[in-house]
Fold Cytochrome c oxidase subunit 2.
Amino acid sequence: MANHSQFGFQDASSPIMEELVEFHDHALMVALAICSLVLYLLALMLMEKLSSNTVDAQEVELVWTILPAIVLILLALPSLQILYMMDEIDEPDLTLKAIGHQWYWTYEYTDFKDLVFDSYMIPTTELPLGHFRLLEVDHRVIIPMESPIRIIVTASDVLHSWAIPTLGVKTDAIPGRLNQTSFITTRPGIFYGQCSEICGANHSYMPIVVESTPLTHFESWSSLLSS
């Protein structure tokens, strides 16, 4: 959950998000090194007198041609690795289908019989004390932690987007099309997200809440709802 005046990312709750945060820090360090070098060269050129060595030098041209290529490789290799990790879906322990509507979500647990429910935002007038405004829902998505989860995302009317920042998940919900992604929660907790695609007048009123619980609690919850 983000805090007021928070400068960085939310705490990662999945291996993919941990990799994304690490790559973000890596890219920032590369950018900081480039900016420092450019500022140093600018200051040097302003303070020193120009000479033929600084204006025409094959060694310098060779360096400023090879160095950007090395920088791009240092950024591209970890980026491609993360892209492949995000696209890879192993054998999931649970498959969840999320259907976007104007303006609520429907969830189907395809591994269980008749385990389907709608998830609406709780209005501010009915919000319990201590809960988050515009983020709480009447029915949360319950998943077992440390288990591979596959989520299939689609929509029934217009474009939506199922996004949980702390899990590193963002998948577009397109009518007539099934998109899928996967994630693993590394700790128990409640993770908040929102529709990240402008979908109409009440776009900001269809939040997403995922609750990660131990496997025994999930089994008890699923058996209670499916019975």
Remarks:
- Residues 77 and 83 are 10 Å apart (CA to CA).
